[in-house]
Amino acid sequence: MLLTDLILIYLDNNSTTQIDPRVVSHLASLLGNRFANPASQHSLGRSARGVLENAREQLLVLCKAKTVGMQSDRAVFTSGGTESNNLALCGLIANRPGMLVVSSIEHPSVLAMAQKLQQKGREVRYLPCRADGQVDLEPLAHWIDQDQKIALVSLMLANNETGVVQPVDQLVRLCKPAGILVHTDAVQAVGKVPVDFQALEVDALTLTGHKIHGLVGVGGLLLKHSVPLEPIFFGGFQQQSLRPGTESPALASSLVFACELAIQQLPERYERMLACRDRIESELVRRIAGAIVVGRDSPRLPHTTSISFPGLDRQILQMALDKEGIACGTGSACASGSSQPSHVLQAMGLPKEVVQGAIRLSLSWENSLEEVDHACEQIIRVIERLSH
Ligand SMILES: Cc1ncc(COP(=O)(O)O)c(C=O)c1O
C-alpha cells in the first residue's frame, strides 16, 4: 500500500499540491512530440523554441506584465521558488550599493540568501512583524527619511504559514521615490488571489508551479523591463544569460498551463476555498476552548489558516492527525523535519504556548465542505484525547 493511500484528507497544500491531471496530459503531449534543444538551429530546434517562447509570453500575459512595445517585461524560467528568490536577491543587488532589507517572516529561501549576502559583507536589515501578521514598514520609512542607502527590499505578497497578505503596495510607494528596487515572493499568492505585475509596480516577482497543481521543479522570476539582473549560474547564453542551462519547453509550458487553469478558475476556486477555511476556523474556535486563529483580522489568502491550540505540542498533534488520515503542516515544509518553532509566529511576538501549539491547514480547490467537516471532527477528537 502506498503511504498516500493512508491520507484521507490532504490539508497541506501550501507544501505542495496534487498535480492536475490536465497538466499531466498537457505535459505528456509535449514530451510525446519529437524533441529538440530549443537552442538548436534546425527546424526541430526552432519548433521547440517556439513552444518555449510562447510559454514565456503567456506567463507574462497571465500575470499582467507588459508584453508590448520596446519596454516589455521579462520572464525567466527557473527550477522553482527557491531558485527564483535566490536569483532575485543576489542578482538584483549585485551591482548596486546599499543595504538589503528583508522582512523577518520571509520564506527560508529569502532569509538564508540574505544571511549569505551578509556573510559576504552586505549590510542586511530585517523588518519586524506585528502581532496581526503584517510586516511593519515604519523602520523602513525611517531609514529612507534619514537618507540611508538601500539597494533592494524583498517582501512576500502573502505569508505561507499564516496566509496574511503583506503591504507590498505601501512598500512600493515608499521605495519608488527613493529609487529602491522591490522584489516580492508571490509563490503562495499566484493563482489564489489576483496578481497584476504592472499594477504591483514591483521590479521582480517569484512564482512556482507546484503550489498551483503544476509540477515540482519549475518556476519563474518576472522582471520589469529595464531592471538589471546578474546571473547566479554561468556557462551558457540561454535566457539572455540570466539563467543559463538547456531550457525545457515542456516544463515551461506545463507551468504556464497550470497558471492558466488556476487564474481562469480563480473566482470559483477562491469562493470554494474561503468557504472551507471559514468553516474550519469557526468550528474549531467554537468547539475547542482556547483555540486561536493566527492573524484572523488581517487580510488573508483564502486557503490558509494557522490555528493554535495553546498547551498542545504542534508536532504531536500533527502526528496524531496523520494517524487519523489527515495531512497538515506545522509551518514551512522546508523547515519540517526539524523541531524548530515557526520563525513567522515568533516574529509576530506570539506567546510561546501559542507558537508551540500552532498547526497550518492549507486547502486547495479540490477540498470540499464535507471533507473539512470530517477533518474538524477528527481534529476535535484528537485534541480531546491529547488534552486528557
Ligand atoms: C512563500 C514561499 N516561497 C518560496 C517557496 C519555495 O518554492 P519551491 O518549493 O518551488 O522552491 C515556498 C515553498 O514552500 C514558499 O511557500
- Please identify which CATH superfamily of the largest domain we are dealing with: Type I PLP-dependent aspartate aminotransferase-like (Major domain)
User: Main sheet: which strands, in order across?
Assistant: 2-8-7-6-5-3-4
Helical content (DSSP H or I, runs of 4+): 25-40%
Would you tell me which CATH topology of the largest domain applies? Aspartate Aminotransferase, domain 2
* Shape by Cα distribution: globular
**Number of E-type strands:** 12
Unreliable sequence segments: none
Question: How would you classify the helix and strand content by structural class?
Answer: alpha/beta
Bound molecules: pyridoxal-5'-phosphate
Number of helices: 13
Q: Rg from C-alpha positions?
A: 21 Å
Textual characterization of the structure:
By secondary structure, the chain is α/β, with parallel strands linked by helices. The chain has 2 domains: 3-19 and 266-387, Alpha-Beta Complex (Aspartate Aminotransferase, domain 1), CATH 3.90.1150.10; 21-264, 3-Layer(aba) Sandwich (Aspartate Aminotransferase, domain 2). It is 40% helix and 13% strand. It contains 13 helices and 12 strands. It has helices at 21-32, 43-62, 81-93, 108-119, 138-145, 168-175, 197-200, 249-264, 266-287, 314-323, 343-347, 352-356, 369-387, and strands at 9-10, 74-78, 99-103, 124-127, 150-154, 181-185, 204-208, 219-223, 292-293, 304-308, 326-327, 358-362. The strands form 3 sheets. A 7-stranded mixed β-sheet has the order 2-8-7-6-5-3-4, with helices on both faces. A 3-stranded antiparallel β-sheet has the order 9-10-12. A two-stranded parallel ribbon has the order 1-11. Helix 6 links the parallel strand 5 (150-154) and strand 6. The two termini are 33 Å apart. The model has no long low-confidence stretch (mean pLDDT 95). Pyridoxal-5'-phosphate is lined by residues 80-82, 85, 107, 109, 156, 160, 185, 187-188, 208, 219, 332-333.
